């Protein structure tokens, strides 16, 4: 059973602008009950009448997804040479000061990279599940193809297409 206090703590951290880990990168585990509790608590905090836009990014490992989000939105997601995001992180941006936007806040999802070197001997089931989740949660998913060769880009697009097909089912 989920402790009702923990989802409240995480949702407050989101409202304060801190990034939280949604999916445990070490174990690839994302409990649906936990995520639902966090987002229910978040809706209670910001108000059920507020419109939220969800933006995610997906791409090959070490292609600069976190750097892209940091640059685009002024976030402070952890980046450094040789460091790779593990799991899925979420950060909430308040946009109520922007009257030209049709939403009140934006949830930015930063995901671990596809084709991770430590998973290269597997059949890419993890990549397909990750892409399905990240694309399925988002109103808009950015596909980062920076610096990738044609083979890797085709592979990413196949994963994305597979994710869309899984969502239709």
Q: What does it look like?
A:
By secondary structure, the chain is α/β, with parallel strands linked by helices. The protein has five helices and five strands; from the N terminus they run H-E-H-E-H-E-E-H-E-H. The chain has helices spanning 5-15, 32-46, 65-73, 125-137, 150-168; strands at 20-24, 52-59, 87-94, 105-111, 140-144. Strands 1-3-4-2-5 form a five-stranded mixed β-sheet, with helices on both faces. Helix 1 crosses helix 2 (32-46) and helix 4 (125-137) packs across helix 5. The longest helix is centred in the last third of the chain and has 19 residues, at 150-168. It is globular and about 45 Å long. 27% of the residues are buried. The model has no long low-confidence stretch (mean pLDDT 77).
Spatial ordering of strands, largest sheet: 1-3-4-2-5
- Tally of alpha and pi helices: 5
Instruction: Provide mean pLDDT, rounded.
Output: 77
Runs with pLDDT <50, length 5+? none
How would the global form be characterised? globular
Task: Work out the oligomeric state of the chains in this entry.
Answer: single chain
Strand content: 15-25%
Q: For the record, give the distance between the C-alpha atoms at the N and C termini, rounded to a whole number.
A: 29 Å
Largest sheet: 5 strands, mixed
**Structural class designation:** alpha/beta
Q: Using the CA coordinates, give the radius of gyration.
A: 16 Å
Q: SSE string, helix = H, strand = E? A: HEHEHEEHEH
**What's the helical proportion of residues?**
25-40%
By DSSP, the count of extended strands is 5
